[in-house]
Write a structure and sequence with these properties.
- It is built from twelve helices and twelve strands.
- It is an alpha/beta fold.
- The chain has a single domain, classed as TIM Barrel (Alpha-Beta Barrel).
- The protein has an eight-stranded parallel β-barrel, surrounded by seven helices. A two-stranded antiparallel sheet has the order 4-5.
- β8 and β9 form a beta hairpin.
- α6 runs parallel beside α7.
- The mean pLDDT is about 95.
Length: about 300
């Protein structure tokens, strides 16, 4: 799957991923009204609103982008109906030939971690039939429990030719409370980056490993160090746009081949119509606003990479 991701980035010229992280206050009133009329002001109604919202954004952007990243918590808050909307979203994105990164941030040990991996990346045996759960192509993984928590995911990825993005240096303000702690004179995130590179050696694609890393755009200097530590790992870069990251902050996340990183924007794209810059589109044309935000993001990153050469 890493080969497909690389190919799609080359084809689109867009090393970006749209974070499908819907909140009800992002969903325009006309979408909510239609969903609530059909399903009521219920969890089912909320899930329907989210699905309709996602579908419009996907329809307006899928030809511009290589991948999407739905954050499962935004769906879980609406219970089982929300998870149904998550699954519908994943399947619809795959129909559009998009690579799907399930932002699940799971991490446990033994059979529990293996069950998470099976649910999101693998197949489970039901009688004599092998069934798929959520069917993502990649998932995000929390490495805090060490190799015991990561290896079951790697095992499933080997079997299914799918991939991981492991949290190394996250974009949130308090990430340094643990991730920046010095161990043997070096910050913890560097040690985690070394483990990601090691784990990735057992699962290589043509040019990059199936085991990637999450490194926030809000820490560009740390990204520069981690790029060298993990030369064969693709880096998923959150924190662009709404969290303050800009194209000029991202150049060190990429390798000299112009690849090696994929930059995420969530509310900066899916809620673009709420931004003054795109207010002219209005709520009725929220999908068109999202499309323009994608085009602007592509131009920003492309311009920064060209200037850095």
């Amino acid at each position: 799957m890493i080969n497909k991701l690389v190919e799609k980035i080359k084809k689109t010229g867009a090393p970006i991923v749209v974070g499908l992280d819907p909140m009800m206050n992002f969903v325009p009133e006309h979408i909510k009204a239609a969903a609530f009329e059909a399903k009521g002001e219920t969890l089912e109604g909320a899930a329907e609103a989210i699905w309709l919202y996602n579908k419009e954004i996907i329809d307006k952007t899928y030809d511009l982008i290589p991948a999407v990243k739905p954050q499962i918590a935004m769906y879980e808050q609406f219970g089982v109906p929300g998870l149904v909307a998550f699954q519908k979203t994943v399947e619809y994105c795959k129909e559009k030939d998009l690579v799907v990164i399930g932002d699940i941030k799971r991490g446990d040990i033994g059979s529990t971690s293996a069950a998470y991996a099976t649910a999101h990346l693998g197949k489970v045996k039901v009688g004599n039939t092998m069934c798929e759960g959520f069917k993502e192509d990649f998932v995000t993984v929390n490495p805090y429990l060490g190799t015991d928590g990561v290896q079951p995911f790697i095992d499933v990825c080997k079997e299914e030719k799918k991939g991981l993005f492991i949290l190394v240096k996250t974009s949130n303000p308090s990430s340094g409370e643990f991730q920046d702690r010095l161990i043997d004179g070096r910050p913890l995130y560097e040690h985690v980056g070394e483990k990601v590179a090691q784990w990735g050696e057992q699962l290589m694609g043509d040019s990059y490993s199936y085991v990637g890393a999450v490194v926030g755009a809000t820490y560009p200097e740390m990204g520069k160090v981690l790029r060298k530590i993990m030369p064969k790992s693709f880096i998923l870069v959150p924190g662009y746009g709404a969290q303050g990251g800009q194209g000029k902050d991202l150049v060190h996340f990429f390798n000299e081949d112009g690849l090696g990183a994929i930059v995420n924007s969530s509310r900066g794209i899916i809620a673009a119509y709420k931004n003054e810059q795109y207010a002219k589109f209005g709520a009725e044309n929220f999908g068109d606003a999202s499309r323009q935000a994608v085009l602007d993001m592509i131009a920003d990153i492309d311009g920064a990479l060209k200037q850095a050469k």
